[in-house]
Automatic annotation (TrEMBL), chain A:
GO molecular function, one term: ATP hydrolysis activity
Protein name: ABC transporter domain-containing protein
Originating organism: Litoreibacter roseus
Family: Belongs to the ABC transporter superfamily.
UniProt-listed Gene3D superfamilies: P-loop containing nucleotide triphosphate hydrolases (3.40.50.300)
GO biological process per UniProt: transmembrane transport
InterPro entries to which the protein is assigned, alphabetical: AAA+_ATPase (IPR003593), ABC_transp_ATP-bind (IPR050319), ABC_transporter-like_ATP-bd (IPR003439), P-loop_NTPase (IPR027417)
PROSITE patterns given in the database record: ABC_TRANSPORTER_2
UniProt entry keywords in alphabetical sequence: ATP-binding, Nucleotide-binding, Transport
Pfam families: ABC_tran (PF00005)
Domain ABC transporter: 2-228
TrEMBL record, chain B:
GO molecular function, one term: dipeptide transmembrane transporter activity
Location of the protein in the cell: Cell membrane
Entry similarity comment: Belongs to the binding-protein-dependent transport system permease family.
Pfam families: BPD_transp_1, BPD_transp_1_N
Domain ABC transmembrane type-1: from-to ranges: 99-300
Native source organism of the sequence: Litoreibacter roseus
Membrane topology note: Multi-pass membrane protein
SUPFAM superfamilies registered for this protein in UniProt: MetI-like (SSF161098)
GO cellular component: plasma membrane
Protein name: Peptide ABC transporter permease
The entry's keywords: Cell membrane, Membrane, Transmembrane, Transmembrane helix, Transport
Primary localisation category: membrane
Coiled-coil blocks: none
Residue ranges crossing the lipid bilayer per the database entry: 12-30, 101-124, 136-165, 177-196, 231-258, 278-300
TrEMBL record, chain C:
Protein name: ABC transporter permease
A Pfam match: BPD_transp_1
GO biological process, one term: transmembrane transport
InterPro entries assigned to the protein according to its UniProt record, in alphabetical order: BP-dependent_transpt_permease, MetI-like, MetI-like_sf
UniProt keywords, alphabetically: Cell membrane, Membrane, Peptide transport, Protein transport, Transmembrane, Transmembrane helix, Transport
Entry's Gene Ontology cellular component terms: plasma membrane
TM annotation in the entry: 63-86, 107-131, 184-207, 228-249
Chief location of this protein within or outside the cell: membrane
Subcellular location: Cell membrane
Domain ABC transmembrane type-1: 61-250
Family: Belongs to the binding-protein-dependent transport system permease family.
UniProt superkingdom: Bacteria
Entry membrane topology: Multi-pass membrane protein
Length: 241, 312, 264
């Protein structure tokens, strides 16, 4: 279980996260929504230990998070891959780095599940489409079967059709693999459709947190209502509400 | 700006202490018995053991590295460079005398280099790619490849030995400075020409300049307001390297032309293993170098607004 | 451009195979035939000890160019390591590495090299040490600068999350990005090393006689400036031509890389 215990992050004089607490069970999905600059990316960096918390702490089953080798799916699919190396090398990096036994069946299974043609693995990142690159990114994140996967705006670089398809694939993979998923997104529609719980982040604080249904049906705070109404106005919530 | 300045100053102090430590460590680990070298320089061969022991305790060789370092550093920070280990004379007055030969030569050479390179670069960039431009580039490329000691020797060969026009050795008259200044000035001119030329070309390539020309802004105004300030920035950034180049050239040139400046002083001190003198020149060179580079950094920041917030 | 490749190749070939072309033993003393003018048996004449200057120049290429190669390569390795430690190792490591670099940059390089080589005693070992110790800092600065920007790229973050060791990250993700710029710096440092070796040799702190290093040869020739002025031309010319060729090759390399950058 991921436990985020009252963390604050300061950068220079400004505070980007303040007293954020929540926990996330394996098999469940938490979506963190909020405007640009609300501190969503900082939250991911803090959980992964890429930035230091000025207060509070993050743990996985009581141990440092880095010990469970969490995986990250990035917003810019191609940036996650070294442009000079084949995708196969990058995808296999977690297996090599952690001295795991390579299981060809797992790679084949993930390729099938994520609808990645295995021959694409021999290409370099600039030789595949953005959508393919993002599925490769998910493949790389899952290859070592991590218990915790963080998604940083996983859909925002993709076009609408690919977004829908990729969101479906992520949900299916989670159902199959049972990892804990934390999805940071500005898209409340996506969060409402695929997450179990939703946390609304604003200026570094969690304004409101609850199950997805409750959040959409009856937001408890002004900010929650603002987010929901904006999503309704844009037609993003029609398919769930 | 003040915060930046104090930051730089602190860094300069850290660097100078490090430099002093490096210098001292080098001399401390120098091969051979320094006491024996000193004794032989002072009293000739066959020195007795008592003399050696006396020299050792006098110079603090017995006290261990850090004690000896501190014993050397603390008077140094107050400007006391100690006495020559060979003849016992105060080092500092001799250093000052040597500087009086070195600095005028350095300034004249720098002026000479500027007087040649700036017009040359301006003429060359009038028509980039013309034979004049190619000639200037070729001359500058050859110029930076010529070692100062060889150029100095060639000038002596031509002007002193073959033609007999100028004196080569010593520093008695101002005529004695002509060949050394030519040697150093040539090298400075060559490297500055390359830098100023590419600075001007790059400044001319700024994407918004054609728009000014189309709107009828005078060529001269563009040159003054947009090309010149931009072209100065790369020149300022390499001034530190130019200074190093000049100081290095000075050492060699002073040795070749037998001028009693800091360079000869240093080389003679090394040969005599007169460590206090070596230390004095090295520390002095480091102080000059660090202070000038600090000034260059500050000038650079005031010239280029883009870097003012960035950690250098 | 093509003439440049030819020039660099000729320099390289001369440094490697030059000694085989030598007509005489470069250190064989032959007093009866001292200070011979160029021509005849001795292509470029003989020096004050009757040694064949042409053979000495050919053998000297190995000293001057070979040592410069060693020195600049050692500097490259040390500097890149320091720069990558600074870029990868966190704030404290960065501060220590960079202040160390600044400290070594506090002296004009060649002067520091003269002092180090002079104090440690004139021999080839201290020459290499002196020029290496004073010649790694530019690599460190470049490596750190590029390394810091590479460190923020997504694939480096991924590699770190995956648990790849710092050494493997440096090898696979940092070095390929660093190599082009480091190669350009390396050509410049190679040229500087050639100048440094000949300068130290000329001052008497470098390669020692009777080894035919070009700077040391000039030191010998200087004494006979009046009677045999041509002797002073050849070694200097060798230095100038090799430095020029390497500098021009570096310029061409830099332009080619800039063009490549502009394309992508």
């Amino acid at each position: 279980m991921l436990t985020v215990d009252n963390i604050s992050v300061r950068r220079g004089v400004s505070t980007t996260l303040e007293e954020v607490s929540f926990s996330l069970e394996p098999g469940r999905t938490l979506a963190v929504v909020g405007e640009s600059g609300a501190g969503k990316s900082t939250l991911i960096s803090a959980i992964l230990g890429l930035v230091r918390c000025s207060a509070g702490g993050v743990s996985w089953n009581g141990a440092p998070v880095s010990r469970c080798r969490p995986a990250l799916v990035m917003q810019e699919p191609r940036a996650a891959f070294n442009p000079r190396l084949s995708l196969r090398r990058s995808v296999m990096e977690p297996v090599v780095a952690q001295n795991l036994v390579f299981e060809p069946e797992r790679l084949a299974m993930l390729c099938r599940a994520l609808e990645v043609q295995p021959d694409l693995l021999e290409r370099r990142p600039d030789q595949v489409s953005i959508g393919q690159a993002q599925r490769m990114g998910i493949l790389r994140a899952l290859i070592a079967a991590p218990p915790l996967v963080l998604f940083d705006e996983p859909l925002s670089a993709l076009d609408a059709v690919t977004q829908k398809h990729t969101a479906r694939l992520i949900a299916d993979m989670q159902a199959q693999e049972g990892f804990a998923a934390l999805i940071v997104t500005h898209d409340l529609g996506y969060a409402a459709a695929f997450a179990d719980d939703i946390a609304a982040l604003r200026e570094g604080r969690i304004e409101e947190m609850g199950t997805a249904q409750a959040f959409i049906a009856a937001p408890q705070t002004d900010y929650g209502r603002t987010l929901r109404d904006a999503a309704f106005a844009l037609g993003a919530l029609e398919r769930v509400a | 700006m003040i915060g930046v300045f104090t930051g730089f100053l602190l860094r300069a102090i850290v660097v100078l202490i490090g430099a002093a430590l490096a210098t001292f460590a080098l001399l401390w680990h120098a091969p051979g018995d320094p006491a024996l070298a000193i004794a032989e320089a002072r009293y000739g061969q066959n020195v007795s053991k008592e003399v050696l022991d006396f020299i050792r305790s006098e110079a603090g060789f017995d006290d261990g590295f850090w004690t000896a370092f501190w014993a050397w550093l603390s008077p140094l920070m107050l400007g006391d460079f100690g006495q020559s280990s060979v003849n016992g004379r105060e080092v500092w007055p001799d250093v000052v005398t040597a500087m009086s030969y070195t600095f005028p030569l350095a300034l004249v050479s720098l002026a000479l280099g500027l007087a040649v390179s700036v017009p040359l670069a301006l003429i060359a960039t009038r028509k980039p790619g013309s034979w004049l431009d190619r000639g200037a580039v070729a001359l500058a490329s050859v110029g930076v490849a010529i070692p100062a000691f060889w150029l100095g020797l060639l000038l002596i060969l031509l002007f002193a030995v073959q033609l007999g026009w100028l004196p080569a050795m010593g520093a008695e008259t101002s005529a004695h400075s002509i060949l050394p200044a030519m040697t150093l000035g040539f090298g400075v001119a060559a490297s500055l020409t390359r830098i100023i030329r590419s600075g001007i070309l790059e400044a001319r390539g700024q994407p918004f300049l054609p728009a000014f020309t189309r709107r009828g802004v005078a060529r001269r105004d563009i040159a003054r307001d947009h090309v010149a300030p931009h072209a100065v920035v790369p020149v300022v950034t390499v001034l530190g390297l130019e200074l190093a180049f000049l100081l290095e050239g000075l050492v060699v040139v002073e040795v070749i032309f037998a001028r009693p400046g800091l360079g000869s002083f240093l080389v003679n001190a090394i040969f005599a293993r007169d460590f206090p003198k070596v230390q004095a020149v090295v520390i002095l060179a480091a102080v000059i170098f660090v202070v000038v580079n600090l000034a260059i950094d500050l000038i650079y920041r005031s010239l280029d607004p883009r870097v003012s917030g960035r950690d250098a | 451009m093509r003439s440049l490749y030819v020039l660099v190749t000729v320099c390289l070939l001369l440094a490697i195979f030059g000694p085989m072309l030598a007509s005489h033993d470069p250190t064989a003393i032959n007093i009866p035939n001292r200070l011979r003018p160029p021509g005849g048996e001795w292509l470029l004449g003989t020096d004050a000890l009757g040694r064949d200057i042409f053979s000495r120049l050919l053998h000297g290429a190995r000293w001057s160019l070979g040592l410069a190669f060693v020195v600049s390569l050692l500097g490259l390795i040390i500097g890149t390591t320091v720069g990558l430690i600074a870029a990868q190792g966190g704030r404290v490591a960065d501060w220590i590495a960079m202040r160390t670099t600044d400290t070594f940059l506090a002296f004009p390089e060649l002067i520091a090299a003269v002092v180090i080589a002079g104090i440690l005693g004139a021999n080839t070992g201290s020459l290499i040490f002196a020029l290496t110790v004073t010649g790694w800092m530019r690599y460190a600065r470049i490596a750190r600068g590029i390394g810091l920007s590479v460190g923020n790229r997504g694939y480096v973050v991924q590699a770190r999350l995956a648990g790849l060791s710092p050494l493997a990250i440096a090898r696979w993700h940092y070095l390929p990005s660093l190599l082009p710029s480091l190669t350009v710096v390396w050509t410049g440092m190679l040229a500087r090393a050639i100048l440094g070796i000949s300068t130290l040799g000329f001052l008497g702190f470098g390669v020692q006689p009777p080894m035919p290093e070009w700077g040391t040869m000039l030191l010998d020739a200087r004494v006979h400036m009046r009677s045999a002025p041509l002797q002073m031309i050849w070694p200097g010319l060798c230095v100038v031509i090799s430095v020029l060729a390497i500098n021009l090759a570096g310029d061409a390399l830099r332009d080619a890389l800039a063009e490549q950058d502009a394309k992508t």
